[in-house]
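thread: overnight batch results

M.L. [08:02]
morning all. the overnight job finished for the chain we discussed friday. pasting input first so we're all looking at the same thing
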Amino acid sequence: MTTFYYCTPEWLEESARIYRSNPQAKEKLKKLSGKMVYRVKAEPAWGIEKDMFFCLFFEQGELIRLELVSKEEGEREAEFLMGGTPQTWKKILRKESKFITDFMLGKIKLEKGSKIGVLAVAPHANNVVDLLTSVELVFPDELSIDEFEQYKANMTSFRKELGV
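M.L. [08:03]
and the structure it wrote out:
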């Protein structure tokens, strides 16, 4: 399994590619429709100098978009915008905590959309986590000093290039 770094375009592109090529994954999410945008709050110790946003748009299980977006685009396009710290998202992606639990405890904040709407799509959260972890995912706090410096340089470069 190829390794990808958290919050990078490559991670999202490969996750989308794998999902689109997997009929069983699509079947599991066939009832999911919605435009979710996730805010990963700034965490300079993780090389995330300012908030990052990525979108996950579905229409009856068909993955429409999975990519980094600007704050403005995320706020404009989202049906649901949810924000949390990188550490909170890591625990969810590592399956150490559940999305619905962290949402109900306020660790994940609803910034746009209705709570009832989020609760309607929440039963799909485990399958969404599976989609986002279909690759080996490495987080910044797991990197050596040299790897972390490369990660930060890459982050600066693609954020400037993509305007995210």
